[in-house]
Amino acid sequence: MIDHSKRQPVLEIIATDTADARAAELGGADRIELVAAMTEGGLTPSYGVIEQVVAHVSIPVYVMIRPHSRSFCYTPDDIRVMTQDVRVARALGAAGVVIGTLTPEGEVDRSQLQPYLSEAKGLGVTFHRAMDASSDLLAALNELGRIRNVSERKVVERVLTSGGKPTAPEGLPELKQLQELGQTLNIAVMAGSGVTIEGIAEIVSATGITEIHMGSGVRKAGSFQHPVDAELVAQAKAQLICAVRSLELHEVARAAGRRRLSR
């Protein structure tokens, strides 16, 4: 399990094909979220796309496992499909998967998660923005922190969330709460949705989150009609590194101030 207490700037970029993934890597992205059908919020890409992207980039590729966009509640047939998709993603060399299931009441559905979490052995796991459709964000994160594998190790590495709001900039107070809880659970909180290059610094400083997820923000005109732009990715990465360094300096200064007061 990754030690999420360390301040590491991590930029994840949404890619829909090999060209997107190559541009993301060229610009300095740390990880790819590979998806299809962005007009539906992102669905599972084809096996051919997974194979090609994994073969053409060296950074980790996390594959979206989502069979439809109707809801985050799934039938037994859906779960069988998703379990097979996880199995294939692992066989094709993906570094991780991006998943999420909820009950009709908006709680994390552990019984549905378990089959494909078991199949994801050896892979990283991100719980996607199903978080933002949950009835209680903090309860959902706590529940994810309780999921263990047979070796009693945590399974979910991180959650992708906008703090329950339409965009991350609108959910800064909620993201800060999630980040604080995530640190106690050793689960990273990654901010996504509506993130712009110019807005990265505020997200980091206001929440302490150092993992940023971007899609339209690194494409011309902010549109998925355009491919990922390597130069925009480079600008986003530079902003993130700068913001995380500023956060670290602020925390060091604050700790020094507390020590002086305690003397």
Mean pLDDT: 92
Query: What order do the SSEs take from the amino end to the carboxyl end, as H and E?
Result: EHEHEHEHEHEHEHEH
The CATH topology turns out to be TIM Barrel
Q: Helicity range of the residues?
A: 40-55%
How far apart are the first and last residues' alpha carbons, in Å? 38 Å
Strand-residue proportion: 5-15%
H/I helix tally: 8
Question: Class by helix and strand content?
Answer: alpha/beta
CATH architecture: Alpha-Beta Barrel
Q: Poorly predicted ranges (pLDDT <50, ≥5 residues)?
A: none
CATH class: Alpha Beta
**Total tally of structural domains:** 1
User: Number of DSSP strands?
Assistant: 8
The named CATH superfamily: Copper homeostasis (CutC) domain
Q: From the alpha-carbon coordinates, what is the Rg to the nearest angstrom?
A: 18 Å
What would you call the quaternary organization? single chain
InterPro entries: CutC-like, CutC-like_dom_sf
Main location: cytoplasm
Family: Belongs to the CutC family.
GO molecular function, one term: copper ion binding
